[in-house]
Design a protein that fits this description.
single chain; two-stranded antiparallel ribbon; alpha+beta
């Protein structure tokens, strides 16, 4: 699943993997579950941690942790994004991703995330 950043936000119009900022005392796994519930209306089950990447934007640095998840419950109701798409790993190259997400894609094999 990829989500398109809305107008008026950093990286507007670019695509990203769902997620967000951790809250104080929250780990990355709890963050992805909370963010997807709040922003997409989906309850996730995290299967495994998959990849991590750090990227320096001009005014801040992000550390992203990527997880392989499955939908446990809920109905997709995007609240924060301009669009949401389900794509195959092969289709990823057709989308313009936020720089941090693009960095992860360039350093990993997205198809391997779906294995085992």
């Amino acid at each position: 699943m990829i989500c398109q950043r809305p107008q008026g936000k950093n990286c507007a119009g670019l695509w990203e993997f769902p997620g967000g900022k951790t809250e104080p005392g929250e780990d990355a796994e709890a963050c992805i579950v909370r963010e997807c519930r709040e922003e997409l209306g989906l309850c996730l089950r995290v299967l495994r941690r998959w990849a991590e990447v750090e990227h320096a934007y001009p005014s801040f640095t992000v550390h992203l942790t990527f997880f392989v998840c499955e939908i446990a419950a809920g109905e997709l109701r995007p609240a924060e994004h301009a669009a949401v798409r389900w794509i195959t790993p092969e289709e990823a190259e057709a989308y313009a991703f936020c720089p941090a997400d693009a960095k992860m894609l360039s350093q990993t094999d997205l198809a391997s995330a779906l294995e085992g």
